[in-house]
């Protein structure tokens, strides 16, 4: 049964720039949870620092706001302690692929059951538009006046190459499509990466909503996301047009299951048994 989107409304004034793509992503995030019928108390959104990480401030939902780039690490802890909750991360591409690239890579490899939504606006937006891991090579910024000297990271190829269990791409210019993608990602059991091509009216005059409408296309219904070679070749030759939808799917055992040894009860209901802790420590004597 779906839940009224208004149930996720927060009274915190929104501090994003007018026209920011984050507004559309926020609406898609609320719509996805409302369509899934997930009450706000069943969801935890973990974030770090940046414009994207402000998202859960503008929703009535449990949240953990930690350090820049450490949102995925915090989310793993939350998921293992509260394994009955739905854990979602919202991060900028700077936090997710730059400062937090290590955590992201290893969380993908481990396959923790969570959804990571990366708002890729191509810049470090909060700190005034420096180049981020995905800024196109040669782009001139106020900090890179001679142009960005490095090639941009290819996060989709990285995720697929590491057998990420769910890899999807959406855009803030197509919020309804993004809401559907988020629903599929959250429903998926395993590590889901949703890469969102996001507009940033303050630092980027090129990648406007119209740009993404013109340069993105929906994957054909007969596209097979379980074909690894096809998925890799799709994202290794990015070109001018960006595919939207579920790019890659792989069923893998969950890290959560292997470390929790079948325990279904969340930690807050299990309580602490000092005898069990001592017994556990005895194994290392
Ligand atoms: C470890 C660490 N490095 C750098 C910073 C400074 N810092 C805070 S937010 C930010 C940029 C955020 O960019 P991004 O993660 O892409 O999110 P956006 O603001 O673009 O949504 C930076 C560089 C920090 N707080 N901590």
Could you describe the 3D structure shown?
The structure is a single chain. This protein has 285 residues and is an alpha/beta fold. It has one domain: Rossmann fold (3-Layer(aba) Sandwich). Helices cover 34% and strands 18% of the residues. It has eleven helices and ten strands. The strands form two sheets. It has an eight-stranded mixed sheet, sandwiched between helices. Helix 1 packs across helix 6, helix 3 crosses helix 4 and helix 5 runs antiparallel to helix 8. It is globular. The model has no long low-confidence stretch (mean pLDDT 96). The protein binds thiamine diphosphate. The site of thiamine diphosphate has 19 residues, from helix 3 and strand 5.
Radius of gyration: 19 Å
User: How many strands, what sense, and barrel or not for the largest sheet?
Assistant: 8 strands, mixed
Distance between the termini: 52 Å
Helical fraction: 25-40%
Q: Architecture in CATH?
A: 3-Layer(aba) Sandwich
Unreliable residue runs:
none
Question: What is the tally of helical segments?
Answer: 11
Per the CATH scheme, the topology name is Rossmann fold
What hetero molecules are bound to the protein chains?
Answer: thiamine diphosphate
**DSSP summary, beta strand count:** 10
In one word, what is the shape?
globular
Average residue-wise pLDDT = 96
What can be said about this structure in brief?
The chain has 285 residues and is an alpha/beta fold. 34% of the residues lie in helices and 18% in strands. The site of thiamine diphosphate has 19 residues, from helix 3 and strand 5.
């Amino acid at each position: 049964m779906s839940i009224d989107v208004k149930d996720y409304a927060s009274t915190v004034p929104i501090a994003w720039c007018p026209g920011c793509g984050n507004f559309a992503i926020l609406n898609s995030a609320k719509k996805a949870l409302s369509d899934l019928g997930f009450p706000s108390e069943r969801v935890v959104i973990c974030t770090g620092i940046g414009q994207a990480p402000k998202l859960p401030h503008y929703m009535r939902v449990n949240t953990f706001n930690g350090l820049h780039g450490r949102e995925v690490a915090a989310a793993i802890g939350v998921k293992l302690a509260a394994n009955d909750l739905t854990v979602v991360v919202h991060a900028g591409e700077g936090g997710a692929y730059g400062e937090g690239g290590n955590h992201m890579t290893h969380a993908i490899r481990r396959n923790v059951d969570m959804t990571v939504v990366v708002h890729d606006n191509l810049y470090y937006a909060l700190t005034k538009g420096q180049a981020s891991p995905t800024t196109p090579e040669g782009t001139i910024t106020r900090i890179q006046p001679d142009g960005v000297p490095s090639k941009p990271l290819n996060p989709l190829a990285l995720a697929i190459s590491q057998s990420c269990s769910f890899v999807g791409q959406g855009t803030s210019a197509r919020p309804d499509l993004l809401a559907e993608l988020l629903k599929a990602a959250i429903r998926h059991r395993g590590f889901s990466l949703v890469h969102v091509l996001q507009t940033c009216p303050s630092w980027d005059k090129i990648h406007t909503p119209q740009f993404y409408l013109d340069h993105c296309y929906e994957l054909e219904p007969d596209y097979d996301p379980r074909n690894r070679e096809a998925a890799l070749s799709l994202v290794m030759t990015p070109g001018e047009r960006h595919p939207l939808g579920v790019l890659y799917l792989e069923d893998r055992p969950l890290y959560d299951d292997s470390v929790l040894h079948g325990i279904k009860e969340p930690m807050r209901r299990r309580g602490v048994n000092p005898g069990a802790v001592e017994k556990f420590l005895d194994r290392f004597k």
